[in-house]
Write a structure and sequence with these properties.
Elements: H1 2-60, H2 66-81, E1 90-96, E2 109-117, H3 118-121, E3 137-145
Antiparallel strand pairs: 1-2, 2-3
Helix pairs in contact: 1-2
């Protein structure tokens, strides 16, 4: 008789396990895809920040012609970003007047900003779950004094 009782309990337990799996699996999938997407975004932003810092460093050393400097900065940023998806990033260079907090130094500043659409760099893994990157931008900027 014990054998008959065990066999009648087992099919009911199998159904519960399947239902639990169906309830928990989407949550685990969203968490896993979210971690992957977030990690890719952080890595991409770090690479953008490195590129704009290198570009600002080149621009801060100054020179005679600002157009030549800007061309060299763009070339440096593109070289640091490489030819992959980040290579499509837009580079903006702004020449700023002297620092208002330190007016005695009398140095101009240069700002290098790099930005790209998030969906061009990171796959939109969670769009099906309602967490879309949409038209969001990944951006980084650096300001340095011109020497």
């Amino acid at each position: 008789m014990r054998i008959a009782q065990r066999s009648s309990v087992r099919p009911a337990r199998r159904g519960v396990v399947v239902i639990e799996l169906l309830l928990v699996l989407p949550i685990l999938l969203i968490a896993l895809l979210g971690m992957i997407e977030f990690g890719m975004i952080l890595t991409s932003e770090d690479e953008l920040l490195t590129a704009c810092r290198e570009g600002a460093r080149v621009a801060s050393h100054g020179g005679c012609d600002r157009r030549e400097i800007e061309e060299e900065v763009r070339h440096t940023v593109k070289r640091v970003l490489g030819k992959g998806r980040l290579g499509e990033a837009c580079v903006e260079i702004n020449w700023l007047p002297e620092d208002p907090e330190h007016p005695k130094k009398g140095r101009d500043r240069v700002e290098v900003a790099v930005h790209v659409e998030a969906t061009r760099v990171v796959p939109n893994l969670l769009a099906w779950a309602g967490f879309s990157l949409g038209k969001r931008q990944l951006a980084a900027a650096t300001v340095m004094n011109v020497e």
